[in-house]
Specification:
With 113 residues, the protein is α+β, with helices and mostly antiparallel strands. The protein is built from 5 helices and 4 strands; from the N terminus they run βαβαααββα. It has helices at 12-23, 40-50, 64-72, 75-84, 106-110, and strands spanning 3-7, 28-32, 93-96, 99-102. A hairpin with a 2-residue loop joins strand 3 and strand 4. The longest helix is centred in the first third of the chain and has 12 residues, at 12-23.
Amino acid sequence: MNIQIFGTKKSADTRKAERFFKERGIKFQFVDLKEKGLSKGEFNSVKQAVGGIDNLIDENAKDQDTLDIIKYIADEDKEEKILENQHILVQPIVRNGKKATVGYQPDVWKGWD
């Protein structure tokens, strides 16, 4: 397994995901969205794995202004705006190769090998 966890230190679900993998002795790479974030290729891979861009957006994010902008801009511009404002993504984003999840989903991770 090649696990990557994208999130922030302040996110409770991100910390729970880290604990899930640590408790099982599974190595992972943590990527702080405040420092680095997803590349365009990683974003596209995760978007495809989770069923589209709408599943990546956290409707309860604090930055409601950015969420409103994303709702009303043209579809071809949404991706770029989200990449610029990754703090509005659901956390954590957990990748294992081509597989990915958003949010805390231990039942899915247990099925990964």
